[in-house]
Design goal:
- The protein has one domain.
- By secondary structure, it is an all-alpha fold.
- The protein is built from ten helices and no strands.
- The longest helix has 24 residues.
């Protein structure tokens, strides 16, 4: 249990590095005051353009990828807990830090780019499936939110496909479902707009004045 708590704490602190907020400040704005009000990739893209969106995505993905790889391959090698499970808990901490950074009054992003980093560090096969799913569904619908929600669904489905024979499979599945629940909760406004037909499509810009 102590190893799990340590992984959650490490993940949370890394997740609190809000790339979107930092990029926004570099452009003399608080990105949370514009667009969706989130300090994430999509809002950075719509508010500040492609370069800001790419930087935010890379930063948010790597703040999940790096600590998870360190946990998996260098720390807790003698733990009785499966390294993959510790990786999931580290990733969960990252998502909590990204979505609710203490130093920004717990107002962060929605965690999808960070979830992508978690999935890549967890299992490259699952990451490839999630990437393809995201690209295809976003290209078809033009809604980033739909692609994002699909990624969160693919995560536990991938755990079922690839890890159902693992002794800690049920535990891993439960943790992966927490990522899905978090994504749907953070996207509740997007879901409402999708149902109402008012959701912004890919490519729509936000005026920054």
């Amino acid at each position: 249990m102590s190893h799990i708590l340590i992984c959650l704490c490490i993940g949370y602190l890394c997740g609190c590095i809000s790339t979107g907020y930092i990029v926004g400040k570099a452009n003399n704005i608080d990105i949370r005051d514009y667009g969706s009000g989130n300090a994430g990739t999509t809002n950075a893209l719509r508010t500040l353009g492609i370069k800001a969106g790419v930087i935010t995505f890379i930063g948010d993905a790597f703040k999940a990828l790096i600590p998870i790889l360190i946990i998996r391959f260098f720390l807790f090698q003698n733990s009785d807990i499966e390294p993959q499970l510790l990786a999931l808990y580290t990733g969960l901490g990252v998502i909590l830090g990204h979505n609710y950074p203490f130093w920004l009054h717990f107002k962060g992003g929605k965690g999808i780019a960070a979830t992508g980093g978690v999935i890549l560090a967890f299992d490259w096969r699952l990451a490839l499936i999630a990437l393809c799913g995201f690209v295809i569904i976003t290209a078809i619908t033009r809604y980033v939110s739909v692609g994002s929600l699909l990624v969160s669904i693919i995560f536990p489905v991938g755990v079922i496909l690839f890890y159902r024979g693992n002794p800690q499979f049920l535990h891993m599945l439960i943790v992966s479902l927490l990522f899905t629940a978090s994504a749907f909760y953070k996207h509740k406004g997007n879901i409402k707009r999708l149902l109402n037909g008012t959701e912004n499509k890919l490519g729509q810009k936000v005026d920054v004045k």
